[in-house]
Amino acid sequence: MTKPEDNIWKLYAEMFGLKPTPEEMDAFIDHYNSPHGVVTYSTDDKNRGVDSYFMSVHDNHNGRKHFHIDLGYGDSNQIHNNVTHLMLDNSWAKSFIDFIKEQRLKQI
């Protein structure tokens, strides 16, 4: 396994253990002002289904090796753009994990 791939799987495991909520994802998006290339919105992903949560690792992006974590959720209460999707590379995944941990510490 390459170093970038190894790193993304470690971050994925940590993120999986945190089980981030849609509200935490939204707070992250707001905090970073919807960073271009990281946040996308789409309409009803038939493969995932609305009102679902998804997290996976992908190693292809425009035909190049680009390891990243796909993380998001669907919301049937919205008619348009009802799927929020984060594409987190090593740097953004680390920022996301740190953000979630900080937010949870504030709640204690």
Reconstruct the topology from this structure:
Layout (H helix, E strand, L loop, with lengths): L2 H16 L3 H10 L7 E4 L10 E9 L2 E11 L8 E6 L1 H17 L2
Antiparallel strand pairs: 1-4, 2-3, 3-4
Descriptive notes:
The structure is a single chain. This protein has 108 residues and is of the alpha+beta class. The chain has one domain (3-106). 40% of the residues lie in helices and 28% in strands. A four-stranded antiparallel sheet has the order 1-4-3-2.
Task: Tag the structure with descriptive keywords.
108 residues; alpha+beta; four-stranded antiparallel sheet; 4 strands; globular
Spatial arrangement of strands, main beta sheet: 1-4-3-2
Task: Count helical runs.
Answer: 3
Largest sheet: 4 strands, antiparallel
Helix content percent band? 25-40%
Gyration radius, rounded:
14 Å
C-alpha end-to-end distance: 38 Å
Tell how many strands the DSSP assignment holds: 4
Low-confidence segments, ≥5 residues, pLDDT <50?
Answer: none
The coarse silhouette is globular
